[in-house]
Every structure is written in structure tokens, then in C-alpha cells.
Amino acid sequence: MIDGGRPLQxxxxxxxxxxxxxALIPAAILAESEVILDNLPILSDVxxxxxxxxxxxxxxxxxxxxxxxxxxxxxxxxMPNGPVKKLRASYYMMGALLGRFKEATIGLPGGCNFEPRxxxxxxxxxxxxxxxxxxxxxxIHLYAKELRGAKIYLDVSSVGATINIxxxxxxxxxxxxxxxxxxxxEIIDVAxxxxxxxxxxxxxGTETIRIEGVTEMHGCRHSIIPDRIQAGTYMIAAxxxxxxxxxxxxxxxxxxxxxxxxxxMGVGIEELDESxxxxxxxxxxxxxxxxxxxxxxxxxxxxxxxxxxxxxxGVSVLSDFVYSSRFKHVPELVRMGAxxxxxxxxxxxxxxxxxxxxxxxxxxxxxxxxxxxxxxVEDGITEVTGVxxxxxxxxxxxxxxxxxxxxxxxxxx
Length: 413
Ligand code: EPU
Fold this sequence. Notes:
Elements lengths: L1 E2 L5 E5 L4 H10 L7 E4 L5 H12 L3 E5 L2 E5 L21 H10 L1 E5 L12 H9 L3 E5 L2 E5 L7 E3 L5 H12 L4 E5 L5 H12 L3 E3 L5 E5 L8 E3 L4 H13 L3 E5 L7 H10 L2 E4 L3 E5 L9 E3 L10 H8 L5 E6 L8 H7 L3 E5 L2 E5 L7 E3 L3 H13 L4 E5 L1 H5 L5 H7 L3 E2 L5
Parallel strand pairs: 2-14, 3-13, 9-10, 17-18, 21-22
Antiparallel strand pairs: 1-22, 1-23, 3-5, 4-5, 6-8, 7-8, 10-12, 11-12, 14-16, 15-16, 18-20, 19-20
Helix pairs in contact: 1-2, 1-6, 3-5, 4-5, 5-6, 7-9, 7-11, 9-11
Bound molecules: uridine-diphosphate-2(N-acetylglucosaminyl) butyric acid.
């Protein structure tokens, strides 16, 4: 429930990155001793992942932002159903278990279904490393007598496929080269953890990643990078409410594409080493935004940005070149009075004031977009349902927004 119309003001501290965390937790499977992860976000997806690891026999203890994973007693138990179905990122179990045990059975992933999300590039990578991959009644079964390094060219620079291949190839025989690899900061974070565990990975963050397989990996301690999407969401919320917010514990470089667009609209931005201050203004100009792979504008901020662009003067065009139809938030924003039409992979947004309505989050970032829209509404209470999606990716959203002066609370339906 959001009683909007109040400018956000104050400081918000960003937690560790969700999309790193849900790759780093399964990566721990590759170690033979305890892995300690710090700066972990407190999210339902993280809880599901710890459940998955416990089912496999790992000992997991999670307290606050720290998780200790002892994978020494893990077995590659088939997991066709159960918690793997709740997460899209359960596909990382394939790379991790294949790497350590050369065998895995994992139910096809669930998660946010905003459009078909194939995993053909993951499978192509596993097969190139020597695995046989079959689909058995909706579960993927992977088996390799031996994993051998290979040269793999990705048809699309997929984050998931790049990480999954790094996981499996870390324990393959010989060298693997991934060409056209994804360059997202989360890839570097995973490579950093794997290297601390004894892997030999070079080039993460560029389009060519080289991995020398090793026979054994060990535990280590690793601190997760800040969540650039969570940070970007608060930056957008601060601008949309014409507030003044310092977003702390961020890597400003990771947010350059967003910062550039906010500046172009007329939002005030001050960057420090580990924080960004966003100073809202009374009027914003329209801009065109193209969501692309990193370092382009992130697709995960495309929906929140749609809400902000309803507050700009004139017509903005926002296109998503990563996902062609990630626009389920648009009909909900239209219920709030937004003037938006979708044409192909673009949303055409004409700025105007929004009104309160009852709206439904259909995925994580669509949920964030609706909350931001609600924060801009001057009269009336916006009711957002489907908040379980928001819990998957935003650590303490309601508490943080309340600390920034918003009137936001949760009610059971
Ligand atoms: N793709 C393929 N084949 C594949 C894999 C991907 O065609 O085998 C296509 C996808 O359909 C998409 C593009 O490649 O058009 C990029 O997909 P990618 O594989 O990079 O996405 P992902 O790894 O499944 C991660 C994040 C997403 C984020 C995307 C893009 C995780 C768990 N998820 O997904 O995050 O949108 O990268 O940056 O890391 C979110 O946080 O809300 C979220 C959906």
C-alpha cells in the first residue's frame, strides 16, 4: 500500500547483488571445504537456494548478511522437483554439479516469467565440454565421463550461460575459452570467487574468458558486490518523487548508463567513491532509452525507468533489445492513468500525472516499477498485489522506503 506524493529524502544503503548471490551460492558446491559469503542480500531467492544446498547434503548457516556453506558432504542427488522449480537461477546447479560430480538432474527452472527465456546456450556450452544433455520429463539430465576444455562461442552474450560454463569448466580437463561472453559485473564477481577457491579464470568482464581447469577447489571468504539494479531502482525512485537521496554502498561505474540518462533528463547527480546522490527537479525532459547488454542500459531497470518517464515532459521511447516483450508493467501503469503504448519492442510514453489504482506485479522489476509509480501519486492510495515477486529481489524495500519518508506498508490480502 502506497500513500504517495512525498519526495524521498535521506540515505539508503544498498545490499549485496541478488544476481551475484544466486550464482555464488551454487558455485560453493565446487569447493571441498567451507565457503563464507559476506554482504549477502536478505531475499526469498537466497533462502530458496540455501534450501536447495541443504537438500543436497551441504551444511548451511545463514545469519544476517553472512552465509557459511560447507559443501564437503554434498551428493549430486537428482532434483526434478521441489525448490529448484521456484527459481530461474536454479540452472546454476547444472554447471556446479556437473563440474564437481560430472552428473546432475535438475528440474527446468521457474522464476519470473515475463517472456520465454531459453537455455540453449547453457546446453551448447555443457555439450562442448563433453556432457550429454537430455530432457527427461521436464528435467535436464547431464552426464559426462570426463569434462574437457573447449572453445565455445556464445550466439548471444548470456549472463547465465557465461556463468554456467565458467562453473563447469573450472573443473574440466584443460583450457576453455568462452567467446562473446557476457560482461556484466556479476560475471566478474563469480570469477573472483572461483579464483579464490583455486580456479584459474582470466578475462572475466571482457568478451573473451579463459579458464584453466583444476582438479580440486577449496573454501574461501568472499564479499558480494553491491546490487546495481537495487541501487538504480532507488535512484529512479528518488528522481520520480523529486526527492534528494544518497544511495550508499554502490560502485558508481556500474550505474553509468542510468546516470547518463538521468542527467540527460535534467536530474541532479553527484557521484562519490561509493555513493551517488540523486537530486530531483520539478521538471524533466523526455529521453529515449535502449536497454542493451552491459555496459548498456540494464533491461532490469527498464520497467522502473518506464515509471520515471511518465513524469517527464513530452514523449519518450524506451526499447528493450535484451527481452522483446518485457512490458507486462505497462497495462498496470495505464490503469494508473499513464499514457503508454507498446509497439514491437518499444514503449512510447507520454508524460502525465498518475492516479491511485489497484495494480498487480507480474514479475520482480514490474513490481518495482509499480511501487515507484505509486510513490509519485499525490492523491489516494495505490495498492500493489503480487509483492512476493518484489521480495525475490529487493532486500527490505518497505523499511528502506519508510526511512526515506515514504508512506508505504504491507497488508495481508
Ligand atoms: N538467451 C538465449 N539463450 C540462452 C540464454 C539466453 O537466447 O541460452 C537470450 C535471452 O532470451 C535474452 C538474452 O539472451 O534475450 C539475455 O539473457 P541472459 O541469459 O543474459 O539472462 P539470464 O542469465 O537468464 C540474467 C538475470 C536477469 C537479467 C538478465 C539480463 C540472473 C539470475 N538473472 O538472466 O535478471 O534480466 O541476466 O541482464 O542473473 C532480474 O534480476 O529481474 C532478472 C530477470
